[in-house]
Amino acid sequence: MNNLELQLATPDDVLKLKNISRATFSTTFADINTKENMDKYLNESFSIEQLDTELRNQSSQFYFASLNNEVIGYMKLNTGKAQKENQNDNALEIERIYVLKDFHGHKVGQFLYNKAIELAKNLNVDYVWLGVWEKNARAIAFYTKNGFIKYSEHVFMLGDDKQTDNLMKLNLIS
Questions:
Q1: How far apart are CA 42 and CA 53, in angstroms?
Q2: Which of 48, 80, 96, 142 has its CA 20 to 30 A from that of 116?
Q3: What pLDDT was estimated at residue 14?
Q4: Given pLDDT bands bounded at 50, 70 and 90, which one contains residue 1?
Q5: Which residues contact 61 (CB under 8 A, 6 or more apart)?
Q6: Res. 85 pLDDT band, cuts 50 70 90
Q7: What residues are paired with 158 via a beta bridge?
Q8: What's the predicted TM-score (pTM) here?
Q9: What is the pLDDT of residues 148-171, one digit of tens each?
């Protein structure tokens, strides 16, 4: 993946963000959730209005991973009050890292993750944290391989379905 590029998303990229968000979330979770819950979540979380609000939040950043000018993955990072929980100024939340299924196993997720850690170190935060669905073994293995440990849990609503996310953390200070 030598031609992999990283691009900071802006509000002008809202349609591109909507498309990659819906495509990656659907292929990752549609087979193990009801259509009704998936549709509700996709329509609420990945609407143009919602994504535009998130893109304009100064405490959040979206990055696209592109190959030959095609967006194949993305991530969302939060600091300060944009964090879903733990609104600690000395932390960075990785809220989302998603990659199109055709590019799984090609180190695109690792590319995005490495950028997140680089940004966290540049911000001088104490730790990076995230929530990952307890049934997403692939993501749990990925973050565990990268040094994250589970420290808690929280409820994540997918439509009307109450799901459990593992909260995981990577300390950056010794």
A1: 16
A2: 48
A3: 98
A4: low
A5: 8, 9, 76, 77, 119
A6: confident
A7: 161
A8: 0.94
A9: 999 999 999 999 999 999 999 999
Mean pLDDT score of the chain:
95
Q: Is 22 exposed, middle or buried (0-12, 13-18, 19+ CB in 10 A)?
A: middle
- CA 90, chain centre distance (Å): 19
103 contact partners, CB below 8 Å, separation of at least 6: 67, 72, 73
Q: String of b and e for 47-83 (b: at least 16 CB within 10 Å)?
A: eeeebeebbeeeebbbbbbbbeeebbbbbbbbbeebb
Geometric angle at alpha carbon 115, from 47 and 42, rounded to 5°: 15
Sign of the Cα torsion 67, 15, 131, 127 reads: positive
State the DSSP H helix or E strand holding residue 40, giving kind and residue range, or none if neither. Answer: helix 35-45
Largest CA distance in the chain: 46
- Cβ count near 20 (within 10 Å): 25
Catalytic residue among 41, 113, 143, 151: 143
